[in-house]
Amino acid sequence: MQMMTNFDYGPIEFYTIGFDGDRPGPAVLQAIDDLVDSGTVNLLDLVFATRAPDGELTVVELSDTTDDAGVPALDLMGLAGLDDIELLAENVPPGRSAAILVVELLWAKAFASALFDAGGSVINRAGVPAPIVNAFLAEHVE
User: Fold this and answer.
1) Domain of residue 108, residue span
2) pLDDT greater than 60 at residue 125
3) Which of 16, 47, 79, 103 is the Cys-Cys partner for 41 at CB 3.0 to 4.6 Å?
4) Position 84 in a domain
5) Would 2 be classed as within a structural domain?
6) What is the tally of structural domains in the chain?
7) pLDDT tens digit string along 61-104?
8) Which is nearest to 71 in space by CA: 106, 122, 36, 115?
9) 43 and 75 Cβ atoms separated by less than 8 Å
10) Among 25, 41, 49, residue whose Cα is nearest residue 73
11) How many CB atoms lie within 10 A of CB 72?
12) 3 φ, ψ to 5°?
């Protein structure tokens, strides 16, 4: 009988989410918390980046915030390094901010193990943001 690989972690993804103000509102943090509570993702890291009007980037780790009320718990704080953060935040325009999330895709963990055991690997992955999907489908699907 062949042993099945059991990875400790599934695939992870980095997201840069732009918004006005210096932090996302409570509804965004609640939505992240809901994904964690449902077992869909595991929040590994969360960083806030703000670009001043002069272009200077300020980075605040979630652990550095003084008001953690309503903020989801992190599993691997500090996973996003400064180089990652600067690269992910390079398109944040002056006067705007971003939340940089690192999430483990729990739903894909078992699939990743099975794929590995079968000698397969993900060669490419592309994502399409929900607003684009919905706009396209609204125009093309009856």
Assistant:
1) 12-140
2) yes
3) 103
4) yes
5) no
6) 1
7) 775 554 555 556 666 666 778 888 888 888 899 989 998 898 99
8) 36
9) yes
10) 41
11) 21
12) -75, 140
